[in-house]
Design brief:
The complex is a heterodimer of chains A (about 550) and B (about 100).
Chain A (H helix, E strand, L loop, with lengths): L5 H23 L4 H9 L3 E3 L4 E5 L5 E3 H14 L3 E4 L5 E6 L4 H10 L16 E2 L14 H11 L14 E4 L13 E7 L5 E7 L12 E7 L3 H15 L10 H8 L1 H18 L5 H8 L20 H10 E3 L5 E6 L10 E3 H14 L3 E4 L5 E7 L3 H10 L14 E2 L14 H13 L2 H5 L4 E4 L13 E8 L2 E8 L11 E2 L6 H18 L6 H8 L2 H8 L1
Parallel strand pairs in A: 6-7, 7-8, 16-17, 17-18
Antiparallel strand pairs in A: 1-2, 2-5, 3-14, 4-5, 4-13, 8-9, 9-10, 11-12, 12-15, 14-15, 18-19, 19-20
Helix pairs in contact in A: 1-2, 1-4, 3-11, 5-9, 6-8, 7-8, 13-15, 15-17
Chain B lengths: L1 E7 L5 E4 L4 E2 L12 H10 L3 E12 L2 E4 L2 H8 L22
Antiparallel strand pairs in B: 1-2, 1-4, 2-3, 4-5
Classes of the chains: A alpha+beta (about 550), B alpha+beta (about 100).
């Protein structure tokens, strides 16, 4: 894992003291809320429905056990004993006191963490594949490149006031586990026919009120020019992105309205210009960063199979474990979606346990996924059973990865000041319904995603089944969408028709799931059946 | 009736204007009537409350009930964490929120 050098630490420490002073001045009345708001947002501090909320960055979702312990300590000491892992691989605390913010950021800085650029119209936390460095199918570990971009984008003066927020994702495999093409910039590190690594750039994706799939604008950028190309892509956006209307200010709107070809032409022109300016960091810096991401000392010759005599454990292996690049290991997913639970929430006690288990079973490393789960990336197959038993005792051993119980849900109207409807209670009811009727496992891979408003933090556009909560004359109403995917077969879900009330949407989900079970052909996932049949039979089943 | 709400500056807690100050219990909220904007301006200047605003509410035998679901949820706390709810101060408990 990357470790701060003196520059990183000095920057973060200085920001802690600066924000401590700003909070102090706000409490003393020397700053008005209008003056303070942009300052607090630059430090991830929101004012939500019930209290201040602090969003802490987890770069590319990677955490050490020590860092996870620190997050748990913050939940205990300054919040109400839990945290919420988000769809951007971050963590949020919902009950923060303004007077504690300086101390919280100082505690984070001690473990090389911060909340900088987790809000505001700047480049946000860089996201990545949760299996980076472990996945059997990756061409390279994408995290050194994500870290290079993190350093480039941190406090970048030219991009501190973009037209709108900006999200970058870096992966390095054909399989997309990070919703790469639904980011402002999606980078896929690829290997060309000569065996050389380069970056494929997809620009102008996103969800929100105008969902777009990012088009490919450059198939191959040499890795020693990747930052320069990013700079060019951002510079064209910063120059032409709309600032008069926040709903049309994201880069996806610019690329769409300008046209991908013209946007690409301008980026290429800017790129050629920037190459002459020498803005790319020296390769020695990338080499320095890479040195922190060396593979752990894996043991050779370990057993390749586990004892599957316990059927619950066997199910967990099948559902929650992913192939590893080293024989004898897997990546194990810890589901934060127990039946009827709150997606993404973990108690301080659970966080401490996950930190301990990361140390004991996974070279002291864990990952946060965009689906609001935790991964232990490097687990010996022969030790999986004891790991699963410990997880199961703490309600962390649910076998439901990527099935209908593994629901992505934003905080919704239970916490969020932007939301129109509650997301979490709907997710709980669906989870309970499909656990009780036994259909959850029968359905296989079925990604269900719920947002409480059009901003789409719950990724409903990318759900095989998506749910969007809306306000209908002061009453919660839920629209049903079908056919989305955030993966390499990326697509945007389409709305079925009129919405449903809270109980009606649960019934509607069961209706479309039943139709799938009835009409599926061998090996088809829900998404495949939907794509083969089209929307009509699902509409007919829902509305008659 | 028109009642005033905001978040406490220090803690961020949801608070309601009770005629003299701010209470965490919506049952203490009073009709601000025509004075709403003046009270908000004075309280904001006094640094006691953050982002205060006026909302429509209905007066019932058990106290004021905000017209909009968002403010009813604010009065309670997250509906999915009753253990974190503001203690209900009337006989209806929180059944009226949703």
């Amino acid at each position: 894992m990357y470790q701060y050098d003196q520059y990183d630490q000095a920057m973060v420490d200085a920001r802690v003291e600066e924000f401590r002073d700003q909070c102090h001045r706000r409490l003393e009345g020397k700053l008005t809320e209008d003056q303070f708001k942009p300052l607090r947002l630059q430090n991830g501090l929101y004012l939500q429905l019930h209290a201040y909320m602090l969003r802490v960055a987890i770069p590319y979702g990677t955490l050490s056990g020590t860092q996870m312990h620190a997050l748990a300590d913050i939940a205990d000491k300054y919040d109400r004993g839990y945290g919420h892992f988000t769809t951007r691989q971050n963590i949020q605390y919902n009950w923060i006191k303004l007077e504690d913010c300086g101390d919280i950021l100082a505690d984070l800085a001690k473990v090389e963490m911060h909340a900088i650029q987790t809000s505001g119209n700047c480049i946000r936390n860089i996201s990545s594949d949760q299996y980076a460095g472990a996945a059997a199918d990756e061409v390279v570990d994408p995290r050194p490149y994500a870290e290079l971009l993190r350093q480039w984008s941190s406090f970048h003066p030219e991009f501190a006031h973009l037209p709108r927020k900006f999200k970058i994702c870096v992966i390095a495999s054909e399989k997309d586990r990070a919703a790469m093409r639904l980011h402002d910039i999606g980078i896929n590190i690829v290997k060309n026919d000569e065996g050389t690594l380069g970056a494929a750039f997809y620009v102008g994706g996103g969800m929100g009120r105008t969902p777009m799939i990012a088009p490919l604008i450059r198939e191959f950028v040499p890795l020693d020019q990747m930052v320069t190309f990013c700079e060019a892509a951002l510079r064209v956006y910063n120059r032409y992105g709309r600032r008069d209307n926040k709903y049309k200010a994201r880069i996806k709107i610019l690329v769409h309205e300008m046209g991908a070809d013209e946007y690409t032409r301008q980026v290429e022109e800017e790129f050629a210009h920037l190459l002459e300016q020498g803005v790319e960091p020296p390769t020695a810096e990338l080499d320095r960063i890479r040195s922190f991401f060396q593979p752990p000392e894996f043991v050779a010759g370990l057993p390749a199979k586990a004892d599957r005599s316990d059927p619950d454990f066997a199910l967990w292996i099948d559902r929650n474990c992913s192939p590893h690049k080293v024989a004898g290991y897997v990546s194990a997913a810890i589901s934060l979606k127990p039946v009827g639970g709150i997606p993404g929430d973990a108690s301080a006690q659970q966080m401490h346990l996950m930190a301990d288990l990361a140390k004991e079973y996974s070279f002291d490393e864990c990952r946060v996924t965009h689906a609001q789960n935790i991964i232990l990336p490097h687990v010996e197959i022969g030790r999986l059973y004891e790991l699963w038993q410990k997880l199961d005792e703490a309600d962390l051993g649910t076998a439901n990865l990527d099935n209908i119980g593994d629901i992505i849900a934003c905080p919704g109207l239970d916490y969020c000041s932007l939301a129109n409807a509650r997301s979490i209670p709907v997710s709980q009811k669906i989870s309970e319904r499909f656990a009780a009727n036994g259909k959850g496992e029968l359905l296989g891979e079925l990604k269900l995603k719920i947002s409480g408003c059009i901003n789409a933090c719950g990724h409903h556009h990318a759900g095989h089944i998506g749910i969007l909560g809306v306000d209908r004359k002061g009453v919660e109403n839920y629209q049903l969408l079908l056919g989305g995917s955030e993966a390499e077969d990326v697509s945007l879900a389409k709305i079925t028709g009129p919405g449903f009330n809270e109980d009606g949407i649960v019934d509607a989900v069961e209706t479309v799931a039943d139709l799938y079970l009835e009409r599926r052909e061998d090996g088809e996932r829900f998404l495949d059946t939907y794509r083969r049949l089209g929307m009509d039979p699902f509409k007919e089943a829902l509305y008659g | 009736m028109k009642i005033l709400t905001g978040n406490d500056l220090k803690s961020g807690a949801v608070v309601w204007w009770d005629g003299k100050g701010w209470s965490i219990h919506i049952t203490d909220a009073v009709d601000a009537g025509e004075n709403a904007e003046n009270i908000i301006a004075a309280e904001d200047a006094a640094r006691r409350v953050n982002a205060a605003y006026a909302i429509e509410a209905e007066q019932t035998e058990d106290g004021p009930r905000p017209a909009h679901i968002k403010d009813r949820v604010r009065a309670l706390g997250p509906t999915i964490r009753p253990d974190l709810a503001v203690p209900a101060a009337d006989k209806m408990g929180w059944d009226w929120v949703i």
